[in-house]
Amino acid sequence: MNAKDIMMEHINRQIGLFGEPVSRASLPTEYKPFRPAHFEVSRIYLTKGSVATPERRRFIERICAVYPEAEVRECLNTPHNRIQLDESDALARHRRGKHLLVFGELQAAVRFSQESGIVCPNYWHFSPYGFCPYDCKYCYLGGTTGVKFFPAVKVYVNIPEMLGNIDQIARRRGKPTPFYLGKLQDPLALDPLTAYSTVLVPFFAEHPLARLTLLTKSAHVDRLLGLEHREHTILSWSINPPEVSAVFEENVPSIDERLAAMRRVAERGYPVRAIMMPIIPIKDWENVYAAFTRRLVETVPIQRLTLGGVCIYRSARMLMERKMGADNAISTHIANGAPRTGDGRARYFREFRHTAYSLVIDTARRLRPDLELALCLEEKALWQSTGLQRPGRCNCVL
Ligand code: SF4
Q1: Does residue 278 belong to any structural domain of this protein?
Q2: How many angstroms is it from 88 CA to the middle of ligand 1?
Q3: How many CB atoms lie within 10 A of CB 70?
Q4: Containing structural domain, residue 226
Q5: How far is Cα 283 from Cα 117, in angstroms, rounded to an integer?
Q6: What spacing in Å lies between the alpha carbon of 185 and ligand 1's midpoint?
Q7: 192-201, 203-212, 365-374, 389-398: which range is least confident on average?
Q8: Which of 39, 134, 214, when mutated, tests ligand 1's pocket best, judged by the most ligand atoms within 8 Å of its CB?
Q9: Which among 129, 126, 128 is positioned nearest to 111, based on CA atoms?
Q10: Which residues' Cβ are closer than 6 Å to ligand 1?
Q11: What pLDDT was estimated at residue 148?
Q12: How many whole angstroms from 21 Cα to the centroid of ligand 1?
């Protein structure tokens, strides 16, 4: 079967006789898994539900064959979130977790976000993966409850059920509805192993109302290029100047690779966005960010650029400072002892956020007056002071 036949087979399984999407998407089968960049696996866990059907077992066995050196542990009576690591030190646990691959089932994988105290609209998001193999020092996920105790990289195999849920939710709402992928994982980092993109993109392409918004740092876009998407999949990249990435992002695709991936999918007609977050005040940051903004806007046809500062909970910050020391450029610009913002996360001083956003906004506007600009996880006061017109029209939504 060629790529187009494979895609049509997926679509046919998802679409009923009268063009009605139904919840019969299947796991990808006709593809060759290969090792993703930046992910070495020492141990694989098969947890409860992961091999409950012959289809799931075949899917997982083919991925396990990609890592013949990895130990495979079957824990088929244990849910994925009950596995424990024999390691009490948070940083050591975090480092080991980045080399563990867990297969499982995620109940309630489609959820509505619960942001409050900021302008961000709440939105639907879903999780065919958990966490990610990259190692950004500022990663807020490292401090979230599930990840803190078992920081492994997870693949959930109940993706057909997730798409069934998405179908129901979108139909119930009766209007175009975005479903965001990238809140609790990187959605493309493991695509070489899973080929989930070949199920997701066709599903959303055919759906009358559901739309996919996806945020990644991965450059694994090859499988996306041949898929029919009908602009129902919006691809967004998390980027920062190379000078910032070099210090704060480890084991990730380079900025050059990310920008090249963005250009490749844009050539195939996908709507492309970028999110510059967290902006980090390294030495000479004004010139660094102005130059990078110019490069981005001049070389990638993005439709929307969203900006954000650091938004960090206490345990994620502790992990970051264990890795980098407390005198890093993020920690030294967080207002210690200052009242936290409405959502409980620590942020930079307002004055700095205003200055940084204004610099990027002005630079981008001079080159692309039509570019949509937005802020992520920000307060109304910052939208107002930076002169942005449409609060809430940001990265994760349509
Ligand atoms: S890509 Fe996202 S989830 Fe992965 S380490 Fe970086 S910030 Fe965390």
Answers
A1: yes
A2: 22
A3: 16
A4: 3-28+35-385
A5: 31
A6: 7
A7: 389-398
A8: 134
A9: 126
A10: 132, 134-136, 139, 141, 186, 217
A11: 86
A12: 32
Burial of residue 233 (number of CB atoms within 10 Å: 0-12, 13-18, 19+): buried
Nearest to 114 by CA among 389, 343, 379, 362: 343
- Which residue has its alpha carbon closest to ligand 1 atom 7? 139
High-pLDDT (> 90) share of the chain, %: 80
Query: Ligand 1 centroid vs 134 CA: distance in angstroms?
Result: 6
pLDDT tens digits along 253-297: 999 999 999 999 999 999 999 999 999 999 999 999 999 999 999
Predicted TM-score (pTM) of this structure = 0.92
Amino acid identity, position 248: F
Cα–Cα distances in Å, from 378 out to 347, 386, 391?
Answer: 10, 11, 9
Share of the chain above pLDDT 70, in %: 91
Q: Examine residue 398 and state whether it is found in any structural domain, yes or no.
A: no
Mutate to test the pocket of ligand 1, among 95, 127, 217 (most ligand atoms within 8 A of CB): 217
Q: pLDDT tens-digit profile of 334-348? A: 977 654 555 668 889
Which of 136, 248, 312, 319 should be mutated for ligand 1, with most atoms under 8 A from CB? Answer: 136
User: What's the total number of domains in the chain?
Assistant: 1
DSSP 80: G
CATH of the domain at 326: 3.80.30.30
DSSP code per residue over 182-249: -SSB-SSTTHHHH-THHHHHHHHHH-SSEEEEEEE-----HHHHTS--TT-EEEEEEE--HHHHHHHE
Residue position matching structure tokens 């992928």: 181
Q: Residue 274 C-alpha to ligand 1 middle, in angstroms?
A: 15
Distance 281 CA to ligand 1 centre (A): 19
Answer whether residue 352 is part of any domain: yes
> Parallel, antiparallel, or unpaired for β 43-47 and 71-75?
parallel
392 is a domain residue: no
Residues 13, 17, 18, 22, CA torsion sign:
negative
Of the pLDDT bands very low, low, confident and very high (cuts 50, 70, 90), residue 394 is confident
